[in-house]
Amino acid sequence: MTSTEKKAPSKKEESVFDWLKTLPPREGNIFFSLCEGGKKTVNKSKLKEALFDSGLQINDFRLRSFFEKLDRHRSNDIEFEDFNSIIKAGGLLIEKALRGELAVPDFRDFSINLDKIYDEIRPNRSGDLAKYIPPLAEVDPEQFGIAVVTTDGQIYQRGDSDVDFSIQSMCKVFNYSIVVENLGLDKVNRHVGAEPSGRQFDDLTLMVKGMGGSSLNPNNQIPFNPMVNAGAIMTTGLINPKNSTGQRLDYIREQFGRIVGWNAMETSGIKRPRFNKNMARQENFKGYNNIATGFLLMATGNIPHSDSLLPEDAHEDKEYEYDFYIEPAVTNALKVYFSICSLEMTAKDIAMGAATLANGGVCPITQDRVLSQSTVRNVLPVVQMAGMYNSSGKFFQEIGLPSKSGVGGGILLIVPQLMGICIFSPRLDSVGNSVRGLEVARKITQKYLVHLFDGTMTDTNRIDPKVPISKWRASSCGEAIWAASNGDVRSLERLTSQQRDLQAGDYDIRTPLHLASAEGQTEVVKYLLNNGVQPIPDRWGGYPISDAKDNGHNEIVELFTKLDVNYSEPVHLVEDPDGETDEMATFDNEMMVIELLFAAFENDVPGIRQLVARSIPVHAGDYDLRTALHLASAEGSLQAVKYLIEHGHPLNVRDRWGATPLDEAKREKRDSVIKYLSSLKK
Ligand code: GLU
Predict the structure, then answer these.
(1) For a substitution probing ligand 1, which of 236, 283, 340, 390 has the most ligand atoms within 8 Å of its CB?
(2) Domains in the chain, number
(3) Is residue 453 packed enough to be buried (19+ CB in 10 Å), middle (13-18) or exposed (0-12)?
(4) How many whole angstroms from 243 Cα to the centroid of ligand 1?
(5) Are 217 and 335 part of one and the same domain?
(6) Pocket of ligand 1 (CB under 6 A)
(7) In this structure, is residue 253 part of a structural domain?
């Protein structure tokens, strides 16, 4: 754990920090982060709001006793002892949520971005409903829903995400998972391949994997993969073949149910998939292609035959009559296949199922290990390679995630170790993928670094959802700035080879070149200039040359003088240079300080709160002695200003140039902040 040294600046703040020291550090900081209005209590609804912001839901199965205990608490304001016992009822989950340590720490920002994506894509009405199964042609084409479930069970939902729809081919992912889990990959591999096909999902040639198969040598003919119909009918044929079709469907509903969070006691609030008998019958009625595929599968000898001997003929006495034999193993496999394609689930259910796969086989909500890690590892590559019909390769290249779509209009995406996503919108493109679904997937990967082959950090226009936004911003510039200010050329070389932008500035547009100049790091300045880094003005219009001059680093001043640049002079405002000065805190996790200042800059109060819960002192200063209050004041972020003051931030901290937060608010003409801070000074 990072050590902190909190220097309390004035009497009032001293008492806040002294009181904090009397509490156990971990729980104490969490409690303190939620206290508001200078009170030493936490408001009930404030606590709930913080949890909902983090993506947890009121009906979360894991938090039942926590919410019960919270609701039973007699008053709205909770004191520390009670708070501690209430959050303990939610286990580590609550603490992680409040410290910003869940799978997607900045869930609020994530949700806002997904809302934007949803709104942008909603007007897209292109594509057509699937018509070859009649009930699919009758669904409301306008429907559109998105659901995301993270491996920590954070949930995002928008639009028609609670509407039942036909999962169709999406069943193939869950189906293959169950078969691999039950029979083991070696056995399953003897029946179905793991190769791309490049053809239509119901193409009969998908029967043949491995050329040279013939009636003389049938056993080397297996479907290419389990994501196309032939392979899916085959894998369905392998699930409990000795049982009746009813029992088999029941079993499959139960297993799919477990994957999406249903539990046998039915306490999780999640239901088993719903069977739509009409859908199954209608598909059966005209499903000649699938029926033909089933018989071809039988012809290869790879669907287990139900009888080894020809049954007795009931028409022995009639010359031309005999019982026409239809292999029940085939019709049963088809019947179960049509049934599981007709199952209905909501986008939220499916996102949960995808999250179970993302989570290595454990359902994030019920914590039920439905599939082993090795099953998941064996299933996902096949989904990735063949899940999106005959645009699977292109889809993987562009989106880079294991995904499966169905002609019911659903697309599921798995972001391994992070989240499951399901988009539902029934209009399809010419290969059978939901048009809006594809667009959403595209926009998500344009915004977030989730493509399996995305590098980290080199593309600062995209965001890593695993990292809080302010931390993400901090890491895009902070490391280089600290390295420059410490004279660490080695680290800068490494960052250069990672294609990091060494000209990137922080919240004050202070760049590595500014800090190297201020600290007299001549070698760093030379290195940066040799690598094409340009001197740019900071928030106050100051170029690095001013930093070098102010601090008497003449050699550096000369380096800049040689460049053909017109340098303006910075304009700082320091009203009372000899006025009171409060001390700021030192904190040895430098990147976390930058993160705090970015959060203050963005008026991101939940972000600041999470950092306070992780024990950073609110008045920690950066390389320019800037604090969160300087940034919040300069940006006019009144909510952040209030939060910081209420959590003990002193007023008269001074930056490198001697400016206090109030000076900064005045310079930037932030009236509401000026008014608030001035009222405190009196
Ligand atoms: N039951 C449908 C079929 O076999 C599923 C098609 C799909 O969603 O790709 O044709």
Answers:
(1) 283
(2) 4
(3) exposed
(4) 24
(5) yes
(6) 168-169, 201-202, 229, 283, 290, 341, 406-407, 432
(7) yes
**Is 568 a residue whose pLDDT tops 60?**
yes
262 found inside a domain: yes
List pLDDT tens digits, range 270-292.
999 999 999 999 999 999 999 99
Q: How confident is the model at residue 209 (pLDDT cuts 50, 70, 90)?
A: low
Residues 353 and 250 in one domain: yes
Residue owning the nearest CA to atom 2 of ligand 1: 168
Q: 259 CA to middle of ligand 1, Å?
A: 21
Backbone φ and ψ for 147, nearest 5 degrees, come out as -135, 140
Q: Indicate if 490 and 439 belong to the same structural domain.
A: no
Is 370 a member of any domain? Answer: yes
Structure tokens at 338: 């049509």
pLDDT confidence of residue 7: 45
> Do 386 and 531 reside in the same domain of the chain?
no
pLDDT of residue 222: 84
Q: Is 313 inside a domain boundary?
A: no
- What's CA 527's distance to the chain center, in Å? 38
pLDDT per residue over 20-31, tens digit each? 888 888 899 999
Average pLDDT value for residue range 445-465: 82
222: enclosing H helix or E strand: none
Domain end marker among 414, 429, 454? 454
From 170, 172, 200, 229, mutation site for ligand 1 pocket: most ligand atoms within 8 A of C-beta: 229
Residue that is last in its domain, among 561, 580, 602: 561
> Do 653 and 622 sit in the same domain of this protein?
yes
**Comparing C-alpha atoms, which of 442, 474, 450 is closest to residue 607?**
474
> Which tokens is 70 given?
């919270």
Ligand 1 midpoint to CA 168 (Å):
5
CATH number at residue 60: 1.10.238.210
Cα distance between residue 196 and residue 382, in whole Å: 8
Atom of ligand 1 nearest to the CA of 170: 8
Distance CA 221, CA 118 (A): 44
Shared domain check, 205 and 71:
no
Say if CB 379 and CB 366 are below 8 A apart. no
Q: Is there a single domain that holds both residue 342 and residue 199?
A: yes
Query: Whole-model pTM?
Result: 0.91
| Ligand 1 centroid distance, CA of 573 (Å) | 69
pLDDT, the chain, mean: 92
47-56, 63-72, 320-329: least confidently modelled range:
320-329
**Residues of the domain holding 46:** 11-98
> What ligand 1 atom has the least distance to the C-alpha of 132?
10
Distance between Cα 341 and ligand 1 center (Å): 7
Same domain, 443 and 480: no
Task: Measure 407 CA to ligand 1 centroid, in angstroms.
Answer: 6
| CA of residue 432 to ligand 1 center, whole Å | 9
- Structure confidence at residue 314 as a pLDDT band (50, 70, 90): confident
- What is the Cα–Cα distance from 203 to 207, expressed in whole angstroms? 8
